Amino acid sequence: MDPLHHFHLHPIIHLPHIGPIDPSINIAVISMWIATAAVFVLFFLASRKVSLVPKGIQNLVEVIVQFVRDDIVLTMMGKEGLPYLPFILTLFMFIWFCNLVGLIPGLFTPTSNIFVTGTLAIMVFFATHIIGIVKHGPFKYFKGWVPQGVPKALAPALFIIEIPSAFAKPFSLAVRLFANMLAGHIALLIFLSLIIQFKSLIIAPAPVLGAVIILILELLFTLLQAYIFAMLSALYISDAVHGGH
User: Dihedral through CA 161, CA 167, CA 168, CA 174, nearest 10?
Assistant: First the structure.
C-alpha cells in the first residue's frame, strides 16, 4: 500500500498499444481483479447451500444484502427502487472490496485512482439517464428538468442551467471517493515517514500509534465510502425514476 503508486503505476505485464490506449496490466488492475474475485467467491460460497435458517457465509451475505436493500435502496428510492437493487448492490460491494484490498501491503487501492472512480461515476451517469428516459420517455424526462409552474419564457434558461448540474453529480461522486481514499493513504504515509525523519526510538511509538489509529479509521472508511457512493447513486436514480430533482 504505497500512495506514491498513484503517480507512477508501472506496468507489470506489458501489452502492445491499441492506438492511444495502453492495455498493459499494472498493480491497480490486478487489485481490481482481486476485489472482483473476492466478491464473486463470497456470493458463490453463500449460494452453494441455501437454507431457511442462514448461518455462516450465507448469514453474512444476507445481512449485507438486507443492509443495502433497507438502508440504501428502500430509503432513497422506495419500493420502486427494488428492481435496481442488483446494480446498487454491485456498486457497493465492488467499491467496498476495492477499498479493503488497498489495505493489504503490496496491493493498490483502485478507488484512490481518479480513472477508476470516474469510470464508476460515468456508469451511474448513463444508468440514471437511461432509466429516466426508458421510464418516462425522452420528452417527459427532460421536461422534468424544469420545475413546474415556471414561466415559459424562463424554461429554456432553466433547462440550460440544469445541464451542468447533470454532469456535476457524477463528477462529485468520482472526486469524493477518490479524494477520501487517497487522503487516508497519504495520512498513513505521513505518520510512518515520521519514524524515518526523526530516527529516534523514543519518538517512534507516537507515529506508529498514529498510523494504527489511521489504519483503524480507514477500515471504517472503506465501508463508509462505499455506502456514500451507493446511497448517492440510488438518490440520483430515484430522481430519474420519479421524474424530479
Answer: 180
